[in-house]
Amino acid sequence: MLPFIIAALVIILDQLSKYLISTNMQTSDSFNLVPHILNITYITNPGASFGILKGHRWIFMILSSVALVLMAAAIVYFSKKKNHKLLAIAIALMLGGGFGNMIDRFFRGEVVDFFEFAFVKFAIFNVADSFICIGSVLFCICIFSGKYSLFGNTKSKEEANVEIPDESSEETPEYKSEDV
C-alpha cells in the first residue's frame, strides 16, 4: 500500500534528521541555514505542540496512540475506496509525522526540534511536524474541494451538476401525489 510506504518514508526522514542534529549539536546550539529565513536551532520539547502538556507525557502518549491507530484504520478504509487515494496519502503524511514524534517521546522522553524561522518569532519544529502540517492542509483541501466524502460515496459528475430552478421564475414544477 502506497500510503503506508509514504508514512514509513516520513518516519525514516524524520528520525534520520533528528539523529543527525542530536549527534552533531549540543542543545541550544544554532546556526543559520538560509540567511534571514531559516536557522537550525537544536532544542528538545518534553510536551506536545508549543510545549503544552509538559509533565503529562503518558497521557499525551496514550491519546496520540489512539489517534495513530485511528489514522492507520482510516488509511486502510480510504485506500479501498475508489478515488480516495489522495485522502489516504494526506492521512499517511500525518501518520508518519505523528509516529516519528511518538518514537522520540517513547525512547528519548522528549521530541527533538530544530527548524526555526529567522524572520518571525515562531515555534521551533522538526520534519515530523512539517509533514503533519502538509498532510493536514492536503486533507482539508481534499475534504473542502467536495470531491471526497468521509462516510459515503463521492458525488458523480451528474449529481454534482444538478440544476436548481431559479426561485424568481414564475414557472413552478407540477408535482403528483406519487412524487411526494
Task: Write a structural description.
The protein has one domain. Helix content is 51%, strand content 11%. The protein contains 5 helices and 3 strands; from the N terminus they run H-E-E-H-H-E-H-H. It has helices at residues 2-24, 57-80, 85-107, 127-144, 157-160, and strands spanning 30-34, 38-45, 111-117. It has a 3-stranded antiparallel beta sheet with strand order 1-2-3. It is globular, with a radius of gyration of 23 Å. 25% of the residues are buried.
SSE arrangement:
Blueprint: H1 2-24, E1 30-34, E2 38-45, H2 57-80, H3 85-107, E3 111-117, H4 127-144, H5 157-160
Antiparallel strand pairs: 1-2, 2-3
Features:
180 residues, globular
The ordered H/E elements are: HEEHHEHH
The assigned structural class equals: mainly alpha
Whole-number count of domains: 1
- Stretches where pLDDT falls below 50 for ≥5 residues? 156-160
Report the principal-axis shape: globular
Give a short account of the largest sheet.
3 strands, antiparallel
Count the E strands.
3
Number of helices: 5
Cross-sheet strand order for the largest sheet: 1-2-3
The span between the termini is 46 Å
Oligomer: single chain
Rg from alpha-carbon coordinates: 23 Å
Average pLDDT rating: 84
Percent helix among the residues? 40-55%
* Percentage of β-strand residues: 5-15%
